[in-house]
Predict the 3D structure of the following.
Amino acid sequence: MDWMDLPLELSELIFQRLSLDDAMNCRATCRSWRKAADAIFSSQLPLMLSLSTPSASPYTWPWILKSDNNNFGSLSAPWSNHDSTVLTETWPQGINRTDNRVHSVQGWLMFNIFHYVSDKSQTFSELLFFNPFSRDSFKLPKLFLFSGRPCYHQVRVAFNSAPPGSEEFVVAFLCVFSYQENVLMRPEHMKQKLAFIKFKQGSWIELESIKTAEIFYDIEVHGDNKLYGLTVKHKTSVVFVFTLGDNYRDDHIIERLVMLNTIEDIPVGRFNFCHTSFKRRHQMVMDTSTGELLLVRHDRWDDVLSRCYDLICTRGFRVFKLDRSILRWCEVFDIGDRFLFWDYTKVSLVSAKGLRLAERFKRGNCIFFCHANTHREWKSPIPDIQDQFRFKEHDIGVFFLADRTISHFSISSSLPFSLLNMWFGPAP
């Protein structure tokens, strides 16, 4: 029997034992192998993508780690202890390897590239979408952000469930910025830009009707015509619901849901600007099949060191659901046969239906997390300047909502340390 004539079931069993790169190469061979490979990709949990970091001399600040090659990054399945797999040979052209503004979008990577035009003293953002397997890419039109160059900025990007590049694909972009030099900024020191783009129309539409004092903490998109924005003000949680029309207009707000702030530690009117990235403790996620809006809270162990360094040690998670009938965030302890995947770019929701799962995951109701710690400790005495700092272990594991326990994943020693880990589902 010819290899290409194997029954689909046997082909899938073979593909399950191949590395990701080998599976991708086999997929390009014929239609039957492509079908078998795609069945594998669609039946597993998202993989962890660890982006490579550039080479650095021993005298550079140690958050830029030394890398021995120009590989884009590595994929691994920490939930199954699979070995890491090199993702691509090189980074996409025109992307600075030190840029940490990267998002994972349904099998694509999105890079947020800032452009500063010095002669006009203006800053723009350009979003580049890149498929690391096919190496296909496309860009969205540049979005004007602000005049000048601010001291600090934070960016949140939200997407609907349509495939990137399709006519139904919608992107929402939030940038909060400040010209002040203080680390903790109040709303009166900040400005924001909130805009969306529908791929079939090809132009950004700004939501200009927001009051200056309403600084958004997070955004989420549902379908092709709803945008949710979360803000916290005067000890209340406020969720704005916008309708994403096809034309420029000033009546996008259709609902303003005001709730008592029943969730601990959501900062009231304060944002923390950090030189690396904004370590967000609360993120929204939409169940696109039901329209249910969830807010996920990440709890960390707090100590003196964690306030000074980027030490991440997960204590657990809490999940809240927006109850419109009583205008409250209500805590939920069971999300059913669903998983939440948390990293500091987003939190995504995955259904357990149709997935090949280990026994302990078959019931769903758990949260996967993957953090790269950059906590630095001085060694004394210093034996070597290249070894003057040491890094804590990765904070990677799964949190079970039913009994509120954590199981940490062991990471292969072959997996290089990365400053940016995120969840990624291959989509060839």
Notes: Residues 183 and 273 are 6 Å apart (CA to CA).
